[in-house]
Specification:
single chain; alpha+beta; Jelly Rolls; Beta-galactosidase, Chain A, domain 5; nine-stranded antiparallel sheet; 52 strands; globular
Length: about 1050
């Protein structure tokens, strides 16, 4: 009875679906017979032209684009009001002569503020007319201030070409339609199965009984057909075919039809084993599916245990497809992120190379951006060991050098170590070592498999600029003693492998073989699906406590060092020692002699210095090597300062030279520059940041000749800042209401530091950097003897300063708040952004004291609450490490110390000393985290840590020492010291030693004399009884400030308590 009722319900729903389809006819939005109504828009440096030509049907729209500076965007917009039903799709016809770029289909609200889109990144445009379908599921909210992100009504529609590779091209568009659709009936995918023949002891219903213990068998060894009748045209996403172990099809194909007469072949497969076939059919629709079984592996007929038809969501994208496949397999057979868990990683590379590898917390190594990974597996004691079989720990060489490793703990310990060596951008090589150690009491024999897998280390939820997850492997072949992947990437087993095998996607993932301690039989495969896999086998037979090391290399470039094929361990070990020596010399200019309690701080400083240089592409300083593989002046200027403060100078000059050469002719400073050129998107902090960068390099190099060469850049920047400020200096802003007057005389709205990407605002982040740029420009003019320019810029600076603080006053009164807001409009609380008013903009003496104190009191209280286990929160950005320095500037080192411990605790994993851009409370929730390591966060940490030891007070030209020293550091039995700290006044060293009831502090200026110094917050701000400086008593000191003058060095202080 239940079965009858179910069939009746299905029939009713199918009829209802057909009725809906009859009434919901597609609506033609534009036939493109004319360009009427289409408005052109383009960013700076982008040319767009439109016309009509002969098209797919009648005339079509012809769009020429040219990215003259490499970066930017441009397109066309038209008013096309649309109200959205529950389900719908857009479609149009497209062809092009174009390099790969981003094709953005946008839907906008009437005021252009709220945007929904489908962004097809790095799209390979078709050169023949192709129907382009955009289903509802593909359209997502892009940006805007609305809180309701459901697409209900839009007024405008856009086609945008955004630069991915740049260049120029032509796009043809025709027959744009909007089609209301019935609710998807994929939930009713219960096909009726028929087969050419069925054996007597079998039944065709076994194909769909959800019981792998039953088998449909053919009654003949001849070709067979199985037809799935979907009972009407339906959407589906794929098939899963579970074969009999012996009588599987070694060759089969899929065909689809709507009428049973005309069939279209959509898939062919050939295989040599009975592994399950997972067939991805994204957004396919038909009434019938035919599985044509062409050849039986056994030659005795065909056997299938189950055929499952999957809905559209099953393979909506390739990563969702693999997530669903992973659900059918033992945990550990697929990367952690395909279990929908967060996976963490770090970077491997050489300084300034454009290529970097990634290693994740489980030991898999992505050999290059958007490329395959090498993943280890162990087989011993009759079981396959994966990343999930044991605890894994992560560390770095010497706990700070950029040579990461992952150790699997078990009877056989496996340590995967990765490093890179060679000439950047020419012959650099990724080296991997796999160390096995038997820590059991028995002899252990087995195999180490190093698998070649079509998966990145960068996870699927990393979507910005590049998409993580699956990576194409179209071919694998052996060539002499190398393995060649995709015809271009070489894997060199330096240690001779004991076996190798490769499998196509249809043959099954390599783990299905490894789990049986076997390799695939093929040595070479070409995979039309693009997800082949393979493995190298290294056998071991280890006595208790015995270890064995296997080495593999992957050149980043086609130039392969000759000795790579030597098969000698000493070659790799030599490269490792050279790599360690390079980094040791590069990142240890500053010498720390501190108690072991400070090790984590020192190690984190050093690791992040190295990671900054690894993320750097040629001259471009970048915050990441995947999602953020671009050079922002914002990140780059502050990161440059961190490098200079640690004796790394040449790289900063190269960055400043390169970036300033990309300044626009009108003086505008691009927010970001990458391989395509300068980005024209306005972020109005960028202008002040370039001047700040130039001045910072001079502060540490004292290179006046170089500074003179950059004076034109500085002048052009000042003129552009004035041009922007003049736009907000009109009578409209001067005489408006409070909300309008709050914008008078400051920089115009922008998305700023991307804190206002939903809607551009008048950001005080922009203004404080504008203020810093103007201040530094005056100092640069003075240094170069440009008196007239100095006077002119000083006038602009002073007027801007007055307007900025009047704006803050108006904004706080209007919003009735008692803290410094992030922007003039919202009254938003953003202490992480307000930090830059203190550093690097040095506005401490000008900021409204009460508002400033309230801002950071509120921030500290919020953060302490967040640290409580019962507090509900989702995520924060560890840019907040800037606040450590802020509390040092505010003479609150106790709060700085608390925050330091809090942020260090959120390094994931702890052994790699870095942060991502986002920290989620749930450490395993699969959500976007920016990049790992995110080296702007890293440089923010370095800059904050430096304030604990030293900072320059630019208002009175003093050096401030020791403002954040821990008590156990200065009380250490052997004393503490910091040596060769770069400063505006040259390198400085100081030594602290407790001697009974006094502290002895010795200070050395290595390159300068006649400097004012202040020792701050020393010894928990206790008031000294007496202080001697080189035997002369000092009088002018307080409990937290000991000022003195260095006429010559060294100077010795004796502080009595």
């Amino acid at each position: 009875m239940k079965e009858v009722i179910s069939k009746i319900i299905i029939a009713i729903l199918v009829l209802l679906s057909l009725a809906i389809q009859l009434f919901a006819q597609p609506k033609t939005l534009d036939e493109f017979n004319t360009t009427e109504g289409w408005q052109i828009f383009a960013s700076e440096g982008v040319e767009i032209k439109i016309s009509t030509v002969d098209g797919w049907k009648g005339k079509c729209l012809h769009l020429d684009y040219n990215f003259t500076k490499g970066s930017g965007y441009g397109g066309i917009q038209k008013v096309l009001p649309i109200a959205y039903p529950e389900n719908y799709q857009f479609n149009f016809y497209l062809r092009a002569q174009s390099p790969n770029n981003n094709l953005e289909f946008k839907l906008l609200s009437a005021n252009n503020e709220n945007v929904w889109w489908y962004n097809n990144r790095n799209y390979e445009f078709p050169d023949q007319w192709t129907k382009y379908v955009i289903k509802k599921r593909k359209i997502e909210f892009a940006w805007g201030p609305t809180t309701d992100k459901t697409l209900r009504q839009t007024e405008k529609l856009e086609f945008t070409i955004a630069s991915y590779n740049g260049g120029k091209g032509t796009i043809y568009l025709d027959e744009l339609k909007f089609e209301p659709l019935p609710e998807l009936l994929s939930a009713l995918l219960q096909p009726l199965f028929t087969a050419t023949s069925t054996s007597k002891k079998s039944d065709v219903k076994f194909l769909s009984d959800k019981n792998h213990g039953t088998i449909w068998r053919s009654n003949s060894k001849e070709k067979q057909e199985i037809i799935l009748d979907l009972q009407g045209r339906k959407e589906y996403g794929g098939l899963k075919i579970v074969w009999d172990e012996k009588d599987f099809a070694s060759k089969f194909n899929l065909q689809i039809s709507d009428d049973g007469k005309t069939w279209e072949k959509i898939y062919t497969a050939a295989k040599e084993n009975p592994n399950i076939n997972y067939i991805r059919l994204p957004e396919f629709e038909s009434a019938l599916i035919k599985i044509q079984l062409e050849k039986s592996f056994s030659g005795k007929g065909f056997g299938i245990r189950e055929i499952e038809i999957k809905d559209g969501e099953y393979s909506a994208d390739i990563n969702r497809f693999f997530i669903n496949i992973a659900k059918d397999h033992t945990r550990g057979f697929y990367p952690r992120y395909f279990n929908e868990e967060k996976s963490y990683w770090t970077v491997v590379g050489v300084s300034e190379d454009v290529k970097e590898a990634l290693i994740n917390e489980d030991g898999a190594v992505e050999v290059d951006k958007q490329n395959f990974s090498l993943e280890p597996f162990l087989y011993y004691d009759g079981k396959l060991k994966t990343w999930n079989s044991q605890q894994n720990i992560q560390r770095l060489e010497k706990n700070y050098l950029p040579v990461p490793s992952v150790k699997w703990l078990g009877d056989i310990q496996l340590e995967v170590k990765a490093f890179a060596d060679g000439e950047a951008n020419k012959s650099s090589v990724l080296y991997l070592s796999y160390t096995l150690k038997n820590i059991s009491k028995e002899v252990k024999e087995g195999n180490l498999f190093v698998a070649v897998r079509p998966f990145q280390v960068n996870p699927y939820y990393q979507w910005l600029n590049v998409t993580g997850g699956a990576a194409k492997i179209r071919s694998i072949k052996t060539e002499k003693n190398k393995i060649v992947v995709n015809g271009a990437k070489y894997i060199v087993p330096i240690s001779k492998a004991d076996g190798f095998g490769a499998a196509s996607f249809d043959d099954g993932d390599v783990t299905s073989f490894l789990s049986q301690d076997k390799l695939p039989q093929k040595k070479n495969v070409v995979d039309k699906i693009g997800y082949a896999s393979a493995a190298m086998k290294f056998s071991f037979d280890l006595k208790p406590q015995e270890e064995k090391i296997f080495y593999v290399a992957v050149p980043f470039y086609k130039e392969i060092p000759g000795k790579l094929n030597s098969g000698k361990a000493q070659f790799v070990n030599q490269k490792l020692e050279e790599t360690k020596k390079f980094w040791e010399e590069k990142i240890t200019h500053v010498k720390f002699n501190l108690p072991s309690s400070a090790d984590k701080i020192v190690n984190t400083i050093r690791t992040n210095l190295a990671n900054i240089l690894i993320n750097r592409d040629k001259a471009g300083i970048q915050p990441g090597s995947r999602s953020y593989e671009r050079s922002w002046i914002r990140d780059g200027s502050l990161t440059s300062s961190a490098l200079l403060k640690n004796g790394i100078v040449k790289e900063v000059r190269e960055f400043a030279d390169w970036y300033s050469a990309n300044q626009f002719e009108n003086g505008k400073v691009p927010c970001v520059v990458d391989r395509r050129g300068p980005d024209p998107v306005p972020e109005n902090d960028s202008h002040g940041e370039l001047v700040y960068l130039i001045k910072q390099y001079f502060n540490y190099s004292k290179d006046t000749t170089w500074l003179r060469s950059k004076f034109e850049n500085v002048n052009k920047t000042v003129d552009y800042i004035k041009f922007l400020v003049d736009q907000r200096s009109t009578d409209f802003y001067k005489s408006g209401n409070d909300s309008i007057r709050a914008c008078y005389g400051i920089l115009p709205e922008s998305i700023s530091h991307e804190g206002y990407s939903d809607k551009p605002r008048h950001s005080y982040w922009d203004d404080f950097f504008g203020m810093k740029g103007l201040k530094d420009a005056v100092e640069i003019a003075d240094l170069l003897g440009e008196k007239e320019e100095s006077k002119k810029i000083a006038g602009i600076r002073d007027e801007f300063k007055k307007n900025l603080y009047e704006s803050i006053e108006l904004a706080t009164k209007r919003k009735k708040i008692n803290y410094i807001p992030g922007c003039a409009e919202l009254g938003d609380f953003d202490a992480t952004s307000t930090t830059i008013a203190l550093y690097p903009c040095n506005e401490l003496n000008n900021l409204p004291h009460e508002l400033l104190q309230n801002t950071f009191d509120k921030y500290f209280e919020n953060t302490q609450n967040r640290a409580k286990p019962e507090t509900v929160w989702d995520a924060y950005t560890p840019y907040e490490v800037r606040t450590i320095g802020s509390f040092i500037f505010l003479d609150q080192p106790e709060r700085a110390h608390w925050l330091l411990e809090y942020f260090l605790n959120d390094q994931r994993p702890q052994g790699w000393n870095h942060w991502a851009e986002v920290v989620w409370k749930d450490r395993r929730i699969p959500r976007f985290i920016g990049d790992m390591p995110h080296t702007w966060v890293g440089s923010d940490f370095i800059n904050s840590m430096r304030t604990m030891f030293i900072y320059e007070n630019e208002y009175d030209s003093t050096i401030v020492l020791g403002a954040g020293l821990y008590q156990d550091w200065i009380d250490a039995p052997n004393g503490m010291s910091i040596e060769h700290l770069p400063s505006y006044y040259g390198d400085i060293s100081y030594f602290v030693k407790k001697e009974n009831e006094k502290y002895r502090v010795d200070i050395v200026l290595h390159e300068n004399e006649n400097v004012k110094v202040v020792l701050k917050n020393f010894n928990q701000k206790k008031l000294p009884k007496k202080i001697l400086a080189d035997g002369i008593e000092l009088k002018n000191f307080t409990e937290n400030s000991i000022p003195f003058y260095i006429g010559k060095t060294p100077v010795s202080l004796e502080i009595f308590y």
